Amino acid sequence: MTDKKKYVYQFGAGKADGDRTMRELLGGKGANLAEMSRTGLPVPPGMTITTETCDQYYKNNQKWPEGLKEQIREGIRFQEEQLGAGFGDPENPLLLSVRSGAAASMPGMMDTVLNLGMNDMVAEGLAERTGNEWFAFDSYRRFIDMFSDVVMGIPHESFESAMQKLKDQRGVKEDNELTAKDLRDLVDRFKAIYRRETGFMFPNDPMEQLEFSINAVFGSWNSERAKKYRKINKITGLIGTAVNIQAMVFGNMGETSGSGVLFTRDPNTGENKLYGEYLTNAQGEDVVAGTRTPEPIKNLKKALPKVYDQLEEMTRKLEKAYQNMQDIEFTIQEEKLFILQTRNGKRTGPAAIKIAVDFVKEGIVNKQEAVKNLVTTAQLDQLLHPQFDDKAIKDKKVIGVGLPASPGAAVGKVYFTSHDAEDAKITGENVILARVETSPDDVGGMHASEGIITSRGGMTSHAAVVARGWGKPCVVGCDDIVINYKNKSLTDGNHTVYEGDWLSINGTTGEVVLGQLPLKPPKLSNDFKKFMKWVDEFRDMKVRTNADRAEDATKAKEFGAEGIGLCRTEHMFFEGERIVEVRRMIMSDNEKERRESLARLLPYQKEDFLGLFKALDGDPVTIRLLDPPLHEFLPHTEDEKKDLAKQFGISYRKVKDRVAALDEANPMLGHRGCRLGITFPEITEMQTRAILEAAIEAKEQGAVVLPEIMVPLIGSGDELIDQKNVIKETAEKVFKDKGTRIDYLIGTMIEVPRAALVADEIAPHADFFSFGTNDLTQMTFGFSRDDIGKFLPDYLERKIVLHDPFQTLDQKGVGKLVAEAADLGRATKPGLKLGICGEHGGDPESIAFCYKQGLDYVSCSPFRVPIARLAAAQEAIAQQENK
Ligand code: ADP
Ligand code: MG
Ligand code: MG
Question: Which positions does UniProt annotate for substrate binding (predicted)?
Answer without folding.
Answer: 568, 624, 751, 772-775
